[in-house]
Design brief:
By secondary structure, this protein is mostly helical. The chain has 5 helices and 2 strands, in the order ααααββα. It has a domain of 76 residues.
């Protein structure tokens, strides 16, 4: 947005971009200090709850602290995910150790190691493939009894 309050659309230079690295240099992210602050506050209240019965306002405060802790942990996770994506974009598909490690981890994370089918856990890779193929064959071979009357 410019000084007149209007959005200015133009070519954004690399200097204009707020990358996670730049935000961290500015001190915008204070994950560890906030997370530890909320963990300590939560621990104090939980210890107090073990010693005596908490008042209603203390339970509300505990819930609020848990919510804030959860938010800061999510922010930290998003930050690190974004930082890794920035590095991946910079490194690109170059034949580097980093690229191969990233690709291997993504392949492991996206793989199916176990499958629960009708309450039975299947862990064998060939059996998983067979069951998935069988499921979709059955799904697409079934005769659908849907008919439409256009009158």
């Amino acid at each position: 947005m410019d000084a007149t309050g209007k959005f200015a659309f133009g070519k954004e230079t690399e200097d204009d971009q707020e990358t996670p690295e730049r935000l961290e240099q500015k001190g915008v992210w204070a994950f560890d200090s906030n997370i530890s602050k909320f963990k300590k506050a939560l621990m104090v209240l939980e210890e107090e709850a073990q010693r005596r019965s908490l008042r209603l306002d203390e339970w509300g405060r505990m819930d609020a602290i848990r919510s804030q802790l959860w938010l800061w942990m999510i922010r930290q996770e998003r930050y690190w995910r974004q930082l890794s994506r920035c590095k991946l974009i910079r490194e690109g598909d170059r034949n580097t150790k980093y690229f191969h490690l990233t690709a291997s981890l993504r392949r492991q994370r996206n793989g199916i190691n176990k499958l629960l089918i009708n309450g039975v856990e299947v862990a064998d890779e060939n059996e998983i493939k067979r069951r998935i193929i069988g499921f979709f064959k059955d799904l697409y071979n079934k005769q659908q009894g849907t008919s439409f009357d256009i009158s």
